[in-house]
Design brief:
The chain is about 45% helix and about 0% strand. By secondary structure, it is an all-alpha fold. It has a domain of about 90 residues.
């Protein structure tokens, strides 16, 4: 099983990808909080990952904390078959958030562009205020003004 990407954990803890990201983080949180193993009540000698999850939630940009959570998830998956299967399913669902893993492709086309162009990834709640486009230099060529020189 592949380890959970540190970049993905940082992104989810930081709240990127909007509602999908929040739901994915909540799914991981619920998975980590599930009881350890099903071996007659005997918990394996590994942590659940709850401490690491809480630490990353408290400081979502800390890659060291994300790495600690990724390691805790991998160790738990190695000793708990049920957790490993559930984590694999979670990772498949999290692929929606991981699509592109930071890649950004921008295309601006279709004539004259007036106004800002923002290039990046995962923007939310943005507002732009721009001045109106300057009048056309051709004067009367479809800009709503009349040509009075005739």
């Amino acid at each position: 099983m592949d380890p959970v990407s540190v970049g993905l954990l940082v992104a989810l803890a930081g709240g990127v990808a909007g509602e999908v990201g929040r739901q994915t983080w909540a799914g991981l949180s619920a998975l980590v909080r599930r009881p350890l193993g099903r071996d007659g009540g005997q918990a394996p000698a590994v942590g659940s990952g709850e401490v690491e999850l809480a630490r990353l939630a408290a400081d979502p940009g800390d890659h060291g904390r994300a790495q600690a959570l990724s390691t805790a998830l991998a160790v738990r998956a190695a000793v708990d078959e049920d957790f490993r299967a559930a984590l694999a399913i979670w990772q498949e669902q999290a692929a929606v958030v991981r699509a592109g893993d930071g890649a950004v492709t921008s295309h601006v086309s279709g004539g004259t562009q007036n106004g800002p162009v923002l290039q990046g990834r995962d923007f939310t709640n943005l507002t732009f205020t721009a001045a109106p486009a300057p009048p056309s230099a051709s004067g009367g060529a479809g800009d709503g003004t009349a040509d009075s020189t005739r």
